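Table S4 entry, Gluconate kinase.
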Amino acid sequence: MQTASELYFIGLDIGTSSAKAVAFRTDGTIVDQSSAAYDLQQPEPDAAVQDADTVLQATLDSLRQLRKKLDREPAAIGLSSAMHSLLAIDRSGRPVSKLITWADGRARPYAEQLRGTETGKFIYRHSGTPIHAMTPLCKLAWMRRQHPDIFSRAEYFVGIKDYLLHHCFGQWLIDHSLASATGLFDLRRRQWIPEALEYTQIKADRLPEAVPVHRVLQDLRKTVAEDLGLAPDTPWVIGASDGCLANLGAGILDGQEAVLTIGTSGAIRMTVNEAVYDPEERLFCYILDEERYVIGGPTNNGGVVWEWFCEQFYPEQPMDGVFDRVSRVPPGAEGLLFLPYLYGERAPVWDASAKGHFWGIEAHHSRDHFARAVLEGICLNLFQITEALETVGGTIERIHANGGFTQSPVWVQILADVMGKEIVIGASPQASAWGAAIMAMESTGHTAAPKAQTRNEVFAPDADRHRVYRELFKQFKGIYPSAKVS
């Protein structure tokens, strides 16, 4: 019989651009991993879609390749997935639409019409999901009006993880965590919201069965088991959404701490013990498990904005060199401000039509001032989300950061100075997969015992620089309303 330290648990994470299969020991040590990438297609303006079967096969391929590397069967597999995807399925179980991802903005007019109405406010209070084009709620309204042929042919409307589960087990299931990010699911009652179904004009039987995140499946289809090199009775745990599992994987379950990510996009999230909602509808509240919730706000404009700026203004300069130049510019970029809404924005304004702006340009400003203003603008926007988060979830004492931006000490220090809080670099780069593996352990009678973080770098805020940014923040908050009016 294997000891706990000899067991492998796999976290299978279906992301927007790739699928990752990561094998962990119970202490969080990575045994091995595999990944497979896929493209995001943009066949028309505002579209962001994928071929569902391509994503499915890439996910299975990552798991198959990982299994070949392991010397024994995994004790269990836990699932993680990106949120807000929508796929129309016909009676035979085949897709009749592309997989519509969270980044697809074609439902924008329907979100704008619904947001602010009594129906929209009711749905937000019960679902915890802000009314936005990203949600399946609004995508269904768009599909019904713009593609009635697909809408009428569809027997089911599902997400990508649901499609994987049907392929593997022949059941249409969705976990409570992903269901809570659809805009269709009641956080407290754990059931589909009748008013949301009425708005989309579908019945609950066209959606997967919503089940708890610790649900264990052990009847893997024989052909799938043989293809993957797994035993048919290998426990699969349905798991949760990638954002919620990132908090679990980072070990941030204390309400006084938060997890902040800046990759292509960004988000800040904290874990709480009861469902809460923001009266101003700036934040999400999603289910983590039977007892915990994750509240926070996502931004479209993270590293993608910095990459755009560097490509346009520093095409010849290595990234490290740009950061070095930024470090020589005073905090506040000598009065130059940047609103980073190049790709519309989710939290805190939830305006898919929002635009980016430079504010306060003077003749003495160099491109290095613009560079610092861009980094500060991204951080000030996250500070604005954090401010909203603290009004609902309480004071945040410390922020645990992950994502590509943590490779730049200059950027992390700017974030610490803007936030006025310690920024800790130490969260696992595979936090969502590790969170899925933890959930697999919990669901099969095992306990995760994470080892101490090997990297635990702390960036402390500078009080003087934070005062500069507090004053700057007052101006920053006024840019979006002014720009929107103009």
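The chain has 16 helices and 23 strands.
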